[in-house]
Design goal:
The complex is a heterodimer of chains A (313) and B (292). By secondary structure, chain A is mainly alpha-helical. Chain A is 76% helix and 0% strand. Chain B has helices at residues 5-30, 34-54, 58-75, 93-97, 106-130, 132-143, 152-181, 183-188, 193-212, 220-234, 238-262, 268-285. In chain B, helix 1 (5-30) runs parallel beside helix 7, helix 2 (34-54) packs antiparallel against helix 3 (58-75) and helix 10 (220-234) runs parallel beside helix 12. Classes of the chains: A mainly alpha (313), B mainly alpha (292). Chains A and B meet through helix 4, helix 7, helix 8 and helix 15 of A and helix 1, helix 2, helix 4, helix 5 and helix 6 of B.
Amino acid sequence: MPAEAAEPTLTWNLAHDVSQLLEYHFMVNALLAGSIVAVMAAAVGWLMVLRREAFAGHTLSVMAFPGAAAAALAGVAGACGYFLFCAAGAVAIARISGSRRVSWSEQSAGIGSVQALALGLGFLFVSLYGGVLGDLESLLFGDLLGVSDGQVVLLLLVAAVTLVGLTALARPLLFASVDPDVAAARGVPVQALSLAFLLLLGLAVGATSQITGALLVFALLVAPAASAQALTARPLVSLALTVVLGLLVVWLGLGIAYFSIYPAGFFIATVAFIVYVLARVIAAARARLRDGYAREPEPTPIGAPGEPPGVIA
Amino acid sequence: MLGPEFMRNALLAGTFIALACGVCGWFVVLRAQVFAGDALSHVAFPGALAAAAAGADQRIGLFVATIAAGLAIGMLGRGVLGGGLPGRGPGRGNAGGGAGTGAADDTAIGIAFTFILGLGAFFLALASTSAAGASGVAGARTLFGSIFGLSGGEARLAAAIGLGAVLATAAIARPLLFASVAPEVAAARGVPTRLLGIAFVALLGVIAAEATQAVGALLLLGLLAAPAAAAHRLAHSPFVGMALAGLLALLAMWGGLALAYAIPSLPASTAIVVLAVGLYGAAALLGGRPHR
């Protein structure tokens, strides 16, 4: 924790504060890792919010627990267990949400059952392992300030793979996300795309949870994307805005955490929440102004493949 | 098996918690609010930690946090229902759910509960600076309930709250069913759909807080989602479905407890959840068709 490493003091001199921030190697690594994760989480999260798969994303993030427990039991690296469970979860969720025989209200129940089963298995593995799950806290809440050089390189690789994968799938995925029925009729492999996206989501969530912990992944995955989509309905603008907001959340959260004794995850989650609330307030105020002055309501941008619906209420 | 006192306590508390989760879960699945239930069960954790940090009774913090979060989710709109009932998730919710009602979609729930979990991390740090060893115990007990560790008084309280939750669900069952299946028609007929929605999520908060003590915050989900989903597959009549959901949850609870008692290395929560999800899987395989 920073409080033990130094005696950081906050002054009114911003330049001095920033140079103080960059004085320590662990802090530089944290900022690098945080920035990489923010960009990746923004891109993946933007699509996740558009596809309304937040519950699926949360379920994939929870796979970190059985994954780590199984890996500890088998004596392999934690990441192996995580990705194994994540892939299995992604396949199960894709089957549930892709099936025509499953009603919409049952989808959430199906995803919930997948999550509950995974957690139950994780608990069983912990019990078989001997009951000592050393760093449950860092598993759940992350260890942002203990990022090694190797981890930064690994994160960079994962981010590159995820972003390249998303770019390759971008056009059909956007089509399938905005209007699955029309996309399916046009011959787009909606179900295969859904599985591919869930796997990429699992990859991104796994990397993000290294930084924020399994429970706080949403702070970087959902909040920036939801804020950006509340503010603008243009796909490219809101995607760019998502990246900017994600970086802002990470930098502000880390910066504040450096000068405090409390965990970074808390500040990142709080900044993300404030950004989202501000975005909703701005969107609501703009809608009210527009309703007050406009003669006729704007056409809603639904249906066209290039224009996803925002989450504006 | 009924010899040891801890087993009798576990059965007493477990029976009524399972009934409450099953019956209430039927509505949760109908209204597609499983994510809300999941969020509420996570909220129990920061609530208990906050109470631990403040030196108060954990159970009070737990109940206050989940009921407050339930009210908040309920007031954000018609929950994750979002208005687009027959639609298939992606791209559909905006059409029906928007219209200035501020309907809470799963995105809003996700953000809100992440923030509350962030507070949990904060309270965890606070608790561990004030009382070193206590927080670990507190955290573990909140995250993974210890059904075999309930005292007689705790078990009786849990049973009473579970029974109360079942009765409360039964009391609002008819108007809630109307409001869930055809919200617009119900509203036009004078049913207070919004109030019912809020009351239901608050009730869900009570159940989440209570069940956290039996199967744990992270495993409550299985008892809420899986038996009810199986019941939706098997029974198309609402009240039969509700009863069946309660029965299946009860079956998973009793079977899980018996299994965990017979196999010492098997945690009770795992056994209960695996059985519940297994029942759902069997119902899905048996070919019951979803109604809608």
